[in-house]
């Protein structure tokens, strides 16, 4: 793909444009996109025009653009995320109906926890996860499961970098985190009390496909809620998701 004078490929600049959109910024003018993507105005206007013409962005009557329905369609079609989500949904719904708290499904994506699905309940405790949102691996319960069962190289890299505290209870000491990850591997569950928010406890278990851990299933409970029932529910659901995945093409 042709490179700009900065050496950046067209694909990189397109991704830079698409990344300016998020849950709080769903419609933008081409000038706002240029500023946020740090692109020359003429480049941003041209790229936005091309993306609208191909359907990856949609333009509204006011001239602002949004991520296109066609982009959603392409992203969903045949994606691993959709297959996993479809296998998981009936089991997540059961966990959520029984516990009446938030239930999440997450995968490892470029060194972070990426949430594919989240089911909520009107009276559930506060929860900062969002569908298509990210949290650090060492802070969230799902991330700790993905880190514990992930590649040893990833673990080394995460443990070698400075670990930011999201709350005063987030594990940031590499030795403490190493011991915690060993426990997660041995017990196949993590109970993260106050790691992400002081008021809540995240509980996560691994989801396997053909023995390999491919996702984490979690619930967020009030901080001092009992955990045994939730752990049982999560384990039953994770086993059901594995069976469903192994049957699905
Ligand atoms: C967790 O996964 O540990 C978690 C996630 C979101 C919250 C609280 C806990 O708001």
UniProtKB/TrEMBL annotation:
Residues 70-247 form the IclR-ED domain. GO terms for biological process: negative regulation of DNA-templated transcription. The keyword Transcription regulation applies. It holds the Pfam family HTH_IclR. The keyword Transcription regulation applies. Keywords: DNA-binding, Transcription, Transcription regulation. GO terms for molecular function: DNA binding; DNA-binding transcription factor activity. It comes from the Bacteria. Residues 8-69 form the HTH iclR-type domain. Gene3D superfamilies: 3.30.450.40, Winged helix-like DNA-binding domain superfamily/Winged helix DNA-binding domain (1.10.10.10). PANTHER family: HELIX-TURN-HELIX TRANSCRIPTIONAL REGULATOR, ICLR FAMILY, HTH-TYPE TRANSCRIPTIONAL REPRESSOR ALLR. This is IclR family transcriptional regulator.
